[in-house]
Description:
Mannose-Binding Protein A, Chain A; nine-stranded mixed beta sheet; C-type lectin domain-containing protein; signal; C-type_lectin-like/link_sf; 14 helices; 634 residues; 3 domains
Amino acid sequence: xxxxxxxxxxxxxxxxxxxxxxxxxxxxxxxxxxxxxxxxxxxxxxxxxxxxxxxxxxxxxxxxxxxxxxxxxxxxxxxxxxxxxxxxxxxxxxxxxxxxxxxxxxxxxxxxxxxxxxxxxxxxxxxxxxxxxxxxxxxxxxxxxxxxxxxxxxxxxxxxxxxxxxxxxxxxxxxxxxxxxxxxxxxxxxxxxxxxxxxxxxxxxxxxxxxxxxxxxxxxxxxxxxxxxxxxxxxxxxxxxxxxxxxxxxxxxxxxxxxxxxxxxxxxxxxxxxxxxxxxxxxxxxxxxxxxxxxxxxxxxxxxxxxxxxxxxxxxxxxxxxxxxxxxxxxxxxxxxxxxxxxxxxxxxxxxxxxxxxxxxxxxxxxxxxxxxxxxxxxxxxxxxxxxxxxxxxxxxxxxxxxxxxxxxxxxxxxxxxxxxxxxxxxxxxxxxxxxxxxxxxxxxxxxxxxxxxxxxxxxxxxxxxxxxxxxxxxxxxxxxxxxxxxxxxxxxxxxxxxxxxxxxxxxxxxxxxxxxxxxxxxxxxxxxxxxxxxxxxxxxxxxxxxxxxxxxxxxxxxxxxxxxxxxxxxxxxxxxxxxxxxxxxxxxxxxxxxxxxxxxxxxxxxxxxxxxxxxxxxxxxxxxxxxxxxxxx
Length: 634
């Protein structure tokens, strides 16, 4: 309490009670009161202004730290982590600032109340009683304000000191954040979508968040992380350099491929032109073959009927050519032994027709008796047959064998028959021989009587025979020449050169192994031992390949690289998968309906087959069958 003011108040009040208080006393009281207010208010107001100024500076600094992360915002997950770390630091500091602000607001209210009294004093708008009343209240307020000054000294100033300590590394942090931002921008520019190692930055930013999320006490360690980022950047640069070298190598290869393509394109154009020409030649060849077959059929039919009309055979016999008379016993079907005995009982023998005669004989019997089969005088073991009367060999490569026969199953009880099926006689004319088990009672005896009249002059029939034979040979030669022309065109259409010992058909290199017949597995291994593979001719080349083989090596068949179970056949390679069971390349009745494993595909090349079915070359057989081996270059 200011005692000078109290004395003046007491004097003034005594005068007032005595009605003697004058204006001079009042003026002196107000002046003393004003001096007292100013002396106490001014320091407190100065302290508040300093505190508010400090708060403003601190608030701006925190905002500046948060603003420093703007360059990172939205660019990556790492920048989001950095932003969150700064935000946590801002929240921590802001809490301390709010505590001080609340105290400032409270004491500003008290100062405002005292300043209101001072305004009244300054305007002399106060009486002595009011001064007395306010003096007591003001004294209490001043005591609280004095305590506030002590609080500022004891609590607020230390908070400011703590905040100052926290803000000391702020500049370092801002510099490190800038470094991180620059590193991210460099990585972004250099590596775009190929930042394979950028995930390392996630770990660095997470470490930043853990270490600096609340206190940022170890902000100096950002320098170490910056070094790590530089290391990752250098590693990424090294990888980029390596990738660039690989890209250059790939580009160099592409340029080489483009140059090769430019070279190949003219060749492909020529190949397409050749293939077009081959197509036309193939059509002409097929048409020629059909015409030849029709002509041959007419000649065969004419000669057969003429031969029958001019024969000099006894009644009950029919003659083919001028030296053979034949007789058929249609009473019953017999096995081969009974057929032989029946012929001998009539002083005859089982028939042994010549190759040329067999073609006419099969047509005549088909005309006269229809479809059936007839025993002939030949026996064998399945791979070799002997004519028993003349002791001549019927070779397994003879053109008169039915397709796929005699086969390769060795037995001691095979006998020869003349098999007559109208479709086969038309399609496979000249191929009537078929081996059957000698014990089968399914065939008619065909007996023969040899006419030994050597004094007969050459008959008109013999002249006709020689003439027809000459014409058939001429037709045969024309077909061979046509096949050779076609093969030559096909070979020229390919621009590749085959290794020695291999021949070229439609840009594929093949080799036929005719040293011996093998089963399919042995054939495959034999090709492999020569660094070759079992042939897998393209569909467009299969017929040309068969024609080449028959022209150069005669009638036969050979294994190719396809196996199956009867319902599906697979080529033994990854480039081509299946040989369709509906492919037009299958010979009639193949692949059949015998669904069993270990079935393999063979390429059939016989003159008669190619004439009747020029576009059908494949048949199916058990893998254990013996055939030639057809290999192809890998």
